[in-house]
Amino acid sequence: MTLILDNETGGGGAAGAPADVIKDVDTQSFVAEVIEASMTTPVIVDFWAPWCGPCKQLTPMLEKLVRQAAGAVRLAKVNIDENQALAGQLRVQSVPTVYAFVSGQPVDAFVGAQPESQIKAFIGRLTGGARSPVDEMLDQAREALAGGDAETAAQVYSQVLAEDSVNAAAIAGMIRCFVALGDAGAARQVIDGLDPEVAATEEVRASASAVELAEQGSDTGDIAGLRAQVAADADDHQARYDLAVALYGAGQTEAAIDELLDIVRRDRTWNEEAARKQLLKVFDTLGTSDPLTVASRKRLSSILFS
């Protein structure tokens, strides 16, 4: 299975996206490419300048999200240094400034760099909340992975990454696919090669926890023998910790959590809080909304703050 993570910025496009959804526009072409074009499709106008630092962050993000919208919205880029009269007519006082045109009229705008979530919301308002094909593909991949079909999920995640090589949700999903397919080494290779900003996202951090647990579980001890050790000495925290790791590796997640919680209850500071840290990895792997995570977090809080 090949993981595509090095697609050049600006290349490709979401499946079915027209090749001309992004254009450089000047004063002469503004009426045709923005006013008239917005009669049928919303047009985002990005006023930028070569010397503008925030523009260098915002414009690529706009391009990516417009491509992901697969034709539901268009992007017109206007260099204000070369089109000062046009910028003046629209009262552009600083860059980046972004307008949205619908039916020939400006209907929304913002100034300055924005986080991706805000730009998605901006585009969502223009498209009536219609979900992008990329979001649909991510849902399809998640459902396949949850249903035990990691091969199909990996194929779909690869398609997303071919269009958006730094999509954190797709990268995290692909890492989980490798874990599900029993290839923790490939998952680790992906994690080690990630840009720090992508690696720090919540989705990728959670998938990294899954890899760490899988790596531990590859060398689990004998569950029966470890249970005997714990039965002989309830305060043998290392044996109980090893038992928890073995139980998790055997797919007995709830039993593993029980043993880790018992360590925290007996000695929360043991081995630099190893049990609590292991619990957090398990919670990350399960997901914050998983019923077992929710219930176990309450149990952990009860122990820590009792």
CATH superfamily of the largest domain: Glutaredoxin
Helical/strand content category: alpha/beta
**How are the strands ordered across the major sheet?**
1-3-2-4-5
- CATH-scheme architecture of the largest domain: 3-Layer(aba) Sandwich
Helix content estimate: 55-70%
Q: Quickly count the domains.
A: 3
- H and E string: EHEHEHEEHHHHHHHHHHHH
Provide the β-strand percentage band.
5-15%
The main sheet comes to: 5 strands, mixed
Distinct helical segment count: 15
Q: At the third CATH level, what is the topology name of the largest domain?
A: Glutaredoxin
Using the CA coordinates, give the radius of gyration.
25 Å
**Number of E-state strands:** 5
Termini distance? 49 Å
Q: What features would you describe in this structure?
A:
Helix content is 58%, strand content 9%. The relative contact order is 0.08. The chain folds into three domains: 22-126, Glutaredoxin (3-Layer(aba) Sandwich), CATH 3.40.30; 133-206, Serine Threonine Protein Phosphatase 5, Tetratricopeptide repeat, CATH 1.25.40; 223-304, Tetratricopeptide repeat domain (Serine Threonine Protein Phosphatase 5, Tetratricopeptide repeat). The chain has helices at residues 30-36, 53-68, 84-89, 116-126, 133-146, 150-163, 168-180, 184-192, 196-199, 202-217, 223-232, 237-249, 253-266, 270-286, 291-304; strands spanning 22-24, 43-48, 74-79, 97-102, 105-111. The chain is elongated and about 85 Å long. It has a five-stranded mixed beta sheet with strand order 1-3-2-4-5, with helices on both faces. Strand 2, helix 2 (53-68) and strand 3 (74-79) form a beta-alpha-beta unit. The chain has 306 residues and is of the alpha/beta class. The chain contains 15 helices and five strands.
